[in-house]
Amino acid sequence: MVKLVLLRHGQSAANFSNTYTGWSDVELTATGVAQAEAAGAALRTAGLTFGHVHTSVLQRAIKTAYIVQDALGQNWLPITKSWRLNERHYGALRGLNKALTRELFGVAQVAQWRRSYTAHPPLLVRPSRSRRYHAFPASIVPRGESLAEATVRLIPYWTDDLAPRLLAGADQLVVAHGSTLRALIKYLEAIPDDQIDAVEVANAQPIVYTLDDQLRILDKQVLASGDA
Question: What is the reported pTM?
């Protein structure tokens, strides 16, 4: 048996202000830092030891991962940062308050953009491309993504990196984002497209999967984490 732990970052400045973020790079709030510390403490209490840590290239996830490693006393662990684990790209909605978008576009339309598997938000005319992506083809930076499109760029990371490490018997920690983790949960649990809208991933609440030697799910637990 092997453990796969999925963890959404602690509260970010955008979570606090209720704005769309996506690939925008925002800080953790003080609350987010405390949530990450509590998540690390919960994982320590559970006695989990990891072989590798995986995160996106966005600081809210990276800093959460670092804080959790501190709490676990496992700072020495190798860590891989991949754009494939980035949050879903919210296109032209980035930076807009979510309540305001409901007023502008209607509750039903915003619900479709946020929770549907296939609907994508209004697209950017030209995506911004920061230095962190310069080593990759320009095509990796989207103008906006549906959850289905985010899943397409996420699953190769599972196939090429996560699954082989798990099959080798090493527990893995993935610190990422709400939509990205929903996509991975959908894949792991074979959740139908029309049911993924009901799946929520809270900030800094560790989701612990126990997998067999063929990576089939034997058990799933969400750890309570104090301040999280």
Answer: 0.95
Residue 160: give its domain's CATH number. 3.40.50.1240
The answer, yes or no, to whether residue 73 has pLDDT greater than 60, is: yes
Contact 127, 142 (CB under 8 A): yes
- Choosing from 9, 52, 89, 177, the catalytic residue is 9
Is 65 contained in some domain?
yes
Specify the DSSP class assigned to residue 203. Answer: T
Q: Give the integer Cα–Cα distance in Å for 127 and 110.
A: 21
Q: Is residue 93 part of a domain?
A: no
Record the tokens describing residue 223, joined without a space: 């750890």
Boundaries of domain holding 182: 2-87+146-222
Catalytic residue among 87, 120, 145, 177: 87
Residue 196 belongs to some domain of the structure: yes
Residue 47 lies in a domain: yes
What pLDDT, on a 0 to 100 scale, did the predictor assign at position 227? 44
Q: What are phi and psi of 208, to 5 degrees?
A: -110, 115
127 vs 171, higher pLDDT: 171
Rounded average pLDDT over 59-83 = 97
On the question of pLDDT at 113 being above 90, the answer is no
Q: Which amino acid is at 132?
A: R
- How many domains does the structure of the chain reveal? 1
Q: What is the DSSP string of 112-133?
A: HHHH-SS--PPPPSS----GGG
Is 87 annotated as catalytic?
yes
52 is catalytic: no
